[in-house]
């Protein structure tokens, strides 16, 4: 019994470490974007492709990782506070009904950083450790 | 040339005129598409094929493009090829072709004007109804998404206003639109019977809808109302004579989404006034309704299970069809369809879906033609339907 408890504690601590080790991420935009911070609601409206322009009038280009990517899952859950299937459902609806467009999907955090750095009006999320001067970090509250 | 084709052409012209605005070609053009092939088996009643058994007449192909000309203007279009057996006329259709103008914006709102052929936001699944990846099952619940009236309510040639607003504790999207729908040339056979021929057209349609979603995305609820006038000019020798149908259609929707499952309920109320059609002096009002309750369970990231009950009544004051049987001599089961569905969707590879579903159906209200029930082909009150489908979307 004692041994089982030991194992349980081990497994639990392993799981806790896993979640604590979930990679920190940052929401980044092209340096020309004037917006400094976004609310969760605004972020959700932008990533669900329903708000399509920045305050200054420039078109927003949205970049995301594949739905299987851990960072995407954690972005949906912790930043947008919705499930990734809900986001995907609304993109599909926009794309096939002519109501709007879907975000551009790229394979890695570094690719997103590069594309955001080179596309005026771009926004995306990347690993915190990938952030450098080429992109602007957007505060989320 | 019909008004619809004119408006499509107008959108094209406006597009080329506005290309002078200076677009970033071609990175601002996005293309998407889908393909599906199904196999359908019915033991009775000739769904998809008049003779029962297996049928491969279940194909959906679509290709679309969306061109973001600048931050205010966008052009989009989609062409589809559909083969649904005897569910609706087979062939190519211009699904939408529109010019979208961002008409009003603040930091929390956007309103767009769409001109050309646009899709109606009429129920949760209608605007993407032929796209397997955007649908819960191979066949949509026929109470709300009846194949026979697919063309009348799916897309419209005219003008639509579409809004999105962040509101307290959620977001609201709405659409108001008006125009006329380009109904497929052969559709009168489906609605009025194989011995009817003539021009079956929609004179005009206006539609309004609103959908509210809570901040956590858990609840979506909405209402859509549509009013249209349909007109039939009979050819000489046609079984159905010239006439009109005035339609009021409302759909109430509610959906709850959790991490592992989702449940959807939609109710439709349809009121018709019929003039002529059976004989020149014929006048009638009818009031039909229906609803479905659907549960989807996301068993694994790639496997989704579905269970649904769907009920359709052609006359809500004669739900069991007994009055209809007394008046016409045709069996009462033509006045309703009750469908129990079990289904599964498996994502075998990225963007590839395999679907299977089983329907146990009581009644024949779905089955065409609508005006003159085909008692010879649809001779069973209880019947079974089994379908499998492979689809790809990008």
Automatic annotation (TrEMBL), chain A:
Keywords carried by this UniProt record: Signal
Gene3D superfamilies the record matches: Periplasmic binding protein-like II (3.40.190.10)
Extent of the signal sequence: 1-22
Domain of life per record: Bacteria
Name of protein: PBP domain-containing protein
Lineage of source species: Bacteria, Pseudomonadati, Pseudomonadota, Gammaproteobacteria, Alteromonadales
UniProtKB/TrEMBL annotation, chain B:
Name the record gives this protein: Porin
The keyword Signal belongs to this UniProt entry's keyword annotation: yes
Signal sequence, renumbered to the chain: 1-23
UniProt entry tagged with the keyword Signal: yes
Species this protein is from: Corallincola platygyrae
Superkingdom, taxonomy of origin: Bacteria
Key words, A-Z: Signal
């Amino acid at each position: 019994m004692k041994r089982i408890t030991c194992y349980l504690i081990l497994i639990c601590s392993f799981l806790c470490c896993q979640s604590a080790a979930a990679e920190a991420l940052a929401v980044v935009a092209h340096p020309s974007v004037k917006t400094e911070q976004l609310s969760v609601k605004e972020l959700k409206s932008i990533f669900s492709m329903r708000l399509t322009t920045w305050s200054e009038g420039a078109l927003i280009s949205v970049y995301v990782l594949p739905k299987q990517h851990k960072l995407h899952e954690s972005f949906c859950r912790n930043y947008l506070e919705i499930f990734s299937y809900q986001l995907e459902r609304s993109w599909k609806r926009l794309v096939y009904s002519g109501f709007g467009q879907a975000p551009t999907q790229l394979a890695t955090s570094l690719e997103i950083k590069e594309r955001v750095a080179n596309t005026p009006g771009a926004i995306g999320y990347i690993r915190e450790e990938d952030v450098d001067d080429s992109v602007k970090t957007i505060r989320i509250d | 040339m019909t008004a619809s084709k004119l408006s499509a052409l107008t959108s094209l012209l406006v597009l080329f005129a506005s290309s002078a605005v200076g677009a970033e070609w071609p990175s601002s053009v996005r293309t998407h598409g889908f393909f599906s092939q199904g196999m359908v088996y019915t033991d009775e009643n000739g769904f998809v094929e008049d003779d029962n058994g297996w049928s491969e007449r279940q194909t959906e192909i679509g290709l679309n493009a969306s061109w973001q000309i600048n931050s205010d203007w966008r052009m989009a279009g989609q062409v589809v090829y559909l083969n649904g057996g005897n569910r609706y006329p087979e062939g190519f259709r211009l699904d939408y072709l529109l010019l979208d103008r961002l008409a009003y914006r603040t930091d929390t709102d956007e309103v767009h004007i769409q001109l050309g052929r646009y899709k109606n936001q009429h129920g949760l699944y209608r605007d993407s109804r032929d796209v397997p990846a955007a649908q819960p099952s191979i066949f949509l619940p026929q109470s709300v998404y009846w194949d026979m009236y697919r063309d009348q309510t799916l897309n419209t040639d005219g003008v639509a206003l579409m809004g999105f607003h962040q509101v307290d504790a959620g977001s609201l999207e709405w659409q108001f639109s008006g125009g006329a729908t380009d109904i497929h040339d052969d559709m009168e056979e489906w609605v009025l019977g194989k011995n009817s021929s003539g021009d079956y057209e929609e004179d005009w349609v206006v539609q309004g809808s609103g959908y509210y979603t809570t901040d956590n995305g858990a609840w979506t609820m909405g209402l859509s109302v549509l009013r249209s006038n349909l007109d039939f000019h009979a050819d000489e020798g046609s079984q159905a004579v010239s006439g009109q149908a005035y339609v009021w259609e409302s759909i109430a929707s509610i959906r709850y989404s959790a991490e592992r499952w989702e449940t959807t309920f939609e109710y439709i109320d349809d009121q018709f006034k019929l003039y002529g059609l059976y004989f020149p002096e014929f006048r009638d009002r009818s009031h039909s309704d229906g609803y479905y309750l659907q549960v989807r369970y996301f068993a694994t990231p790639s496997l989704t299970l579905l269970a649904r009950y769907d009920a359709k009544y052609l006359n809500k004051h004669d739900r069991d069809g007994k009055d209809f049987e007394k008046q016409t001599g045709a069996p009462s089961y033509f006045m309703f369809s009750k469908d129990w569905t079990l289904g599964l969707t498996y994502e075998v590879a990225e963007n590839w879906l395999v679907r299977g579903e089983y329907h146990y159906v009581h009644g024949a209200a779905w089955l065409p033609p609508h005006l003159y029930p085909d008692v010879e082909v649809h001779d069973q009150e209880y019947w079974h339907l089994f379908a499998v489908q492979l689809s790809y979307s990008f």
